[in-house]
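User: Please run a holo structure prediction.
Assistant: Happy to. Please share the sequence and the ligand.
User: Here you go; the ligand is MGD.
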Amino acid sequence: MNSTCPYCGVGCGVCVTSQGNHQATVTGDPHHPANAGRLCVKGAALGETLTPQGRLLTAQVNGQPVSLDAALDAAAAGLRAVIDQYGPQAVAFYGSGQLLTEDYYVANKLMKGYIGAANIDTNSRLCMASAVVGYKRALGADAVPCCYDDLEQADLVLLVGSNAAWAHPVVWQRLMQAKQQRPAMRIVVIDPRRTASCDQADLHLPLRPGSDAALLSGLLHWLAQQDGLDSSMLPHLNGVSETLAAAAQWDVARVAETCDLTEQQVTHFFRLFSQHDRVLTLWCMGINQSTTGSDNNQAILNLHLLTGKIGRAGCGPFSLTGQPNAMGGREVGGLANQLAAHMNFTDEDCDRVQRFWRSPAMARQPGLTALDLFSAIAEGEVKAVWIMGTNPAVSMPEGNRVAQALAACPLVIVSDVMAQTDTSAFADILLPAQGWGEKNGTVTNSERRISRQRAFAAAPGDTRPDWWLLAQVAQRLGFREGFNWQHPSEIFCEHAALSGFENGGQRAFDISGLAQLSQAEWDALRPVQWPVNAAHPQGCARLFGDRRFFHPDGKARLLVPATPALTRRDAAYPLLMNSGRVRDQWHTMTRTGLVPRLMQHCDEPFVALHPADAAQYGVTEGGLARVQSVQGWISARVRTDAGMRRGELFVPMHWNRQFSQQSHVDMLVAARACPFSGQPALKQTPVRILSLAVSWQGWLWQRGIERPAGLRYWSRVPYPAAQRYAVAGDGLPQVWLAEHVDLSGLDLQLATGSGNDYRLLAWRDGELQLAFYAGSMLPSIDSAFVAAVFADAPQDAAGRHSVLAGQAMQRSAAGRIICSCMGVGEQTILQAVAQGCRTTQALGRKLKCGTQCGSCIPELKQLLLSDVVVEE
Ligand SMILES: Nc1nc2c(c(=O)[nH]1)N[C@H]1C(S)=C(S)[C@@H](COP(=O)(O)OP(=O)(O)OC[C@H]3O[C@@H](n4cnc5c(=O)[nH]c(N)nc54)[C@H](O)[C@@H]3O)O[C@H]1N2
Ligand SMILES: Nc1nc2c(c(=O)[nH]1)N[C@H]1C(S)=C(S)[C@@H](COP(=O)(O)OP(=O)(O)OC[C@H]3O[C@@H](n4cnc5c(=O)[nH]c(N)nc54)[C@H](O)[C@@H]3O)O[C@H]1N2
Ligand code: SF4
Ligand SMILES: [Mo]
């Protein structure tokens, strides 16, 4: 069966062979135009995420399992009570670019057309809002001009604030292959960090965070002086003279100074740009998540418009979407300041949508955007919120305030696929959603391509698709008429019809050509790029080739980007913290965190910084650190990285309370936002770093996922039959263990050494239940081996010794493990004896055996006395 990967906005097609029973093989779909058979490691590991582990299978009200009907009744009654008492503005929905288009359409319709408020916003506010403003202001429509085939056709590719090698890996693979086939192709990476995406870059510009618009305005000015603009574009543009006049202040010297680059680096980049005709700019969160996010977008658009690098093969301003359906959300009007189908809150648009929906209570004003929404919850203005497909307790800035707001909110409804998330902890009503592989619908990727996600697995427990949960609550609120669908294809057709309704070429988003699909045709829908209408019945790869834009006068608009606002630091918070993704994790880890294989690449929350900064601030590679901002603190493992700029830190966004004690980066980030898009500046937080002083560190392995207590630090990695915790604490490890871990009824095997060296295994009927390895430093153990012992192996005595050593011993070479601490085997010791070692001290000097806990010294003495002849 063909479907679409549920992770990033590349939107790769997958072929799924379901073996039933939560087993499926997932391979790349060779016929899907986005990936032509390629997949990244997350996509390839999708089959491993289908585990029932941790799923939310039944509805809950106030923590008690209830029937789905009862929960839906409670949700509707709760919303109705708030609306009746406080009015429609007191309720809100917070959705997600991971909802399918059909789900999203229903949520938006219910809120904006029936409840009659526009308080529906989504995690796309944290992600795509600045790009939406950028495209709408410049092009008159939120319409991405490009397509993925441009990757192969470009001469020069700029990656600006995008670590595509990790975040859009198949786009990256396509670029790498194109460059291999056409070595003349050039790649420039503009990112404060040297990332994995710099590996094949011809130029990396490690600019000062937030200074992109200066660089791009400088380029515009430089091109203007070199006659490098496309004069044939001028009739199609407004705002040219103001924009060029403002750009003139950005000479090379000022650009270099503002961006903290050398003049050589700047002119090298400018020359590369001017030497290539087909330039494709790919950008992502380094541009959008900024207090000048919309203007950063504008700077990119100004450049492409004035150089005519738009609407042609291999060219264009190409914003990469983050989530699998970020684009679909934009189409249905999932953001609080848009109406459905690319319409706005003009009277004309409101009337049009209301007529189409025949709805009772149309919202007439934009609603609360994400940051304001959570403030309004905190202030008691919003009294009921329904959160679906997102985990704001982790991903929103000012995590503490979000948690307080949710705790204080009288009614929190959460629909999720997982039972335990940082957000579901605050839910009064939990609704069990169907996940990837169980539900049916469509998603739209970065290049406007609509693809089907198809169900191949039976839906477990009481789980239901999000659209169905929404429609049921709508009906219970008394809105029977508008929410009567029997199948998601009907919702899709309604959405498609609305896109064409009284459109007349005014709105870019038009898929009226799909409005008549039968259920079978929708089921079989092949990936297609919008618009799909009478003019483009088979879809449309590139937009704006005709240089007609969607502003009323048909022209595109240039605007002067705001002067970069460089975040201030002070003596108390001298460093600037950046945040973002790692290759194998997805957001708040609810799915990727279940797959041991995906944890191997980065198995702990970390803070990366330049080695010289590490030295300056007294933290060491592999040690633990605390990072503090005005908002709060987190702890993380230190990674030194010479690819970091001095004075800057990078912390991954993924870790949260399910996987770590206190390592969720949004605890530190302030809710400062771009004034035009409301998108928060998640990449620039003034912080300080200090070493986290602990007296011991270790590994705790246990079967369950109970959160360990009484520690200074922990983070968790799942294995099939056990959980591994990196831990650190004060005092003595054995005291901590005795106070916080229940070992009653277990057979204990332990090794104590000097200082903090302490190891303990707890067995029941030959099965390992718990393993603990502690020392002053983090002991080195072979996790794969320990995990395998938990998974299957009852151990003999020798085996138990190697488990205590935490290392699989090559029995044939080293023999039975004698010294578990240092992992020294019987044969090795006997060889040393044969070579002249006569005392335990001599053995210790040569092999280190017996030098840690000393519990093997009696056995060493036995071996010294023995007459065993060593076989060579
Ligand atoms: N593996 C993985 N892939 C994902 C996701 C995931 O969770 N995991 N999530 C998906 C989603 S929703 C999104 S939005 C995308 C995000 O994809 P990306 O935006 O590519 O990823 P990030 O790591 O958030 O940030 C990109 C880069 O911006 C840089 N940056 C920070 N500040 C600045 C600046 O001022 N200027 C410039 N030029 N660069 C700056 C950072 O150093 C970072 O390398 O990834 C998608 N793909
Ligand atoms: N500091 C910092 N913070 C960031 C970012 C950053 O770069 N730095 N990036 C921001 C960006 S770009 C984004 S997109 C956000 C992402 O942040 P979130 O959206 O909060 O993260 P996810 O983990 O993707 O949350 C999705 C939730 O939906 C659930 N889910 C999965 N499938 C379904 C389904 O079919 N139905 C329902 N109802 N639920 C489902 C998952 O279990 C999970 O709980 O984070 C933002 N936060
Ligand atoms: S590149 Fe994105 S869409 Fe493609 S397989 Fe990887 S995560 Fe999935
Ligand atoms: Mo995102």
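The pocket of MGD (ligand 1) is lined by residues 8, 127, 160-164, 166-168, 190-193, 195, 209-210, 212, 284-286, 322-323, 578, 580-581, 583, 585-587, 683 (CB under 6 Å).
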